[in-house]
Design goal:
The protein has 11 helices and 14 strands. It is of the alpha/beta class. The chain has a domain of 155 residues. An 8-stranded mixed β-sheet has the order 3-2-1-4-12-6-13-11, sandwiched between helices. Strand 9 and strand 10 form a beta hairpin. 46% of the residues are buried. This is Glycosyltransferase. One of its GO terms (molecular function) is transferase activity.
């Protein structure tokens, strides 16, 4: 199905929990778009912090569709957002992030121009709050330095066949891999981030991410699994860097699902890494158990107790 830009409906999806302090910044940035969204699907898990009141204040300036999450964790919230979106494309934004004024406009242009596209990832910078004033920087939210050095070419890092021409891929072991990632341009990549990504709804509507992540607490790498669902249908996924990239600023703070420290944080993040093999296998990927087993053993070289226990747990329960 070829979508004409003039007829594209755009849904913005935000999942939120205990972020009433940050949500006004995100919603205000959507109000200021050069091209307004057709709907803003907000999935709220009530926490008593006043999130409902914040959303209500913006209901007259944005076409908000509020969905209440009564149970489950973050990936179940994203599943609810996808299920309730009606747009041709869904643009995902964190509840503690703000977008540039041409964010939606840039995504629409890219979805029009890129061949066979189903998913696009933009650029994320850091922002800081200083006495309620938002300070935007040009610092990458996820360090560009850490992703520009390619991984060693080892057999268990070999990309899945359908990702062989991708800069950032999922391997036959279910783990991530990447070549040298360009600092400018458009390139095929599975490395999307939920803070700033766009996906064609028809390509992901039937992807069972809530089921695949039913035991997960952090939802680590769910974006790559979602993108892989689209790739399995024959679509391509891209990342964009440089002047054409849709830009988001992520507000830096201590509350985060995947950042921070602690035993359980490390346990659940590593569980999601190890369980990725079983999720991809469920989706029909040509994964290798031998490669997976070796990759799991190599990943334990740090010999941390949380990682060891998470590996054992993932081997027992899978997904």
């Amino acid at each position: 199905m070829i979508l004409l830009v003039r007829s594209l409906r755009v849904s913005v999806a935000i999942v939120t929990y205990r972020r009433a302090w940050a949500l006004p910044y995100s919603l205000t940035s959507l109000v200021n778009q050069t091209r307004r969204p057709d709907e803003v699907v907000v999935v709220l898990k009530p926490s008593g912090d006043g999130g409902e009141e914040v959303i209500s204040r913006f209901s007259s300036s944005l076409p908000i569709k509020l969905v209440i999450q009564r149970e489950g964790f973050v990936v179940q919230a994203y599943q609810m957002a996808i299920d309730n979106a009606s747009g041709d494309i869904i643009l995902f934004l964190d509840d503690d992030a703000v977008v540039e004024e041409k964010w939606i406009e840039k995504y629409i242009e890219l979805f029009k121009e890129l061949p066979n596209v189903a998913g696009i990832g933009g650029t994320i910078y850091k922002a800081y709050l200083n006495n309620d004033v938002l300070l935007k920087t040009q610092e990458y939210f996820i360090s560009a330095k850490s992703s520009t050095k390619p991984l060693r070419n080892i057999f268990y890092r070999k990309p899945l066949p359908e990702l062989s021409d991708y800069v950032h891929w999922l391997s036959i072991a279910g783990f991530r891999g990447f070549k040298q990632i360009p600092e400018e341009g458009v390139f095929k990549s599975i490395g999307l981030c939920g803070a700033n990504m766009g996906l064609k709804r028809e390509a992901i509507a039937d992807c069972p991410i809530a089921e695949l992540y039913r035991r997960s607490r952090k939802g680590y790498l769910f974006e790559q699994v979602l993108a892989y669902c689209a790739r399995r249908k024959g679509f391509d996924i891209y990342e964009v860097r440089g002047s054409r990239a849709p830009i988001v600023w992520h507000i830096m703070h201590e509350q985060s699902l995947t950042r921070g420290k602690g035993f359980w944080r490390e346990f659940w993040i590593h569980y999601d890494r190890v369980a990725s093999y079983w999720r991809l296998k469920r989706l029909g990927a040509n994964v290798s158990f031998t490669a997976y087993f070796i990759a799991c053993i190599v990943a334990l070289r740090r010999k941390t107790l949380p990682q060891l226990l998470a590996t054992i747990y993932a081997w027992i329960v899978r997904i």
